[in-house]
């Protein structure tokens, strides 16, 4: 079994968005009067970096929700967890007979038990 990929650390997130050095480099090239081909190449790299950042932002969960919507979603999920914990605690405190009584029983198929077979009544008579 393969291990799930480790989520990026906060330092890795910060590195994805470090573009100011590249922008400063492009501005410096322009001010120094460098060859327009080199400047165009540097601008294309900065543009590609911005596109990479935008694609990364699009993959973040909840990025399509406002802060208020995200907070509401978190509160809904916390309430759901609390309800589930309460049900688990309630179920864990029940004795075995109560647990069995709560579980739905499967419906018998038509003709069950078949005629002439050892049904429950025959088995119970043997005790």
User: What about the largest sheet?
Assistant: none
Radius of gyration (CA) equals 33 Å
Low-confidence stretches: 119-127
From N to C, what is the helix and strand string?
Answer: HHHHHH
Tally of separate domains: 2
Structural class: mainly alpha
Strand content: under 5%
Instruction: Please give the alpha-carbon distance between the first and last residues.
Output: 51 Å
**Helical segment count:** 6
How many DSSP-defined strands? 0
Mean pLDDT: 78
Q: Topology of this protein?
A:
Layout: H1 10-16, H2 20-32, H3 36-59, H4 67-93, H5 96-102, H6 120-125
Helix pairs in contact: 2-3
Name its key features:
127 residues; mainly alpha
Please describe what this structure looks like.
The protein is built from 6 helices and no strands. By secondary structure, the chain is mainly α. The chain has 2 domains: about 10-60; about 60-105. About 65% of the residues lie in helices and about 0% in strands.
């Amino acid at each position: 079994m393969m291990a799930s990929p480790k989520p990026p650390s906060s330092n890795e997130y910060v590195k994805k968005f470090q573009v100011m050095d590249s922008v400063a480099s492009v501005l410096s090239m322009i001010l120094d009067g460098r060859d327009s081909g080199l400047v165009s190449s540097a601008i294309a790299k900065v543009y590609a970096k911005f596109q990479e950042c935008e694609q990364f932002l699009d993959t973040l969960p909840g990025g399509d929700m406002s802060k208020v919507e995200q907070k509401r979603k978190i509160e809904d999920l916390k309430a759901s967890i609390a309800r589930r914990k309460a049900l688990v605690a309630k179920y864990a405190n029940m004795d075995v007979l109560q647990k069995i009584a709560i579980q739905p029983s499967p419906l018998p198929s038509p003709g069950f038990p078949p005629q002439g077979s050892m049904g429950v009544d025959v088995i119970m008579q043997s005790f």
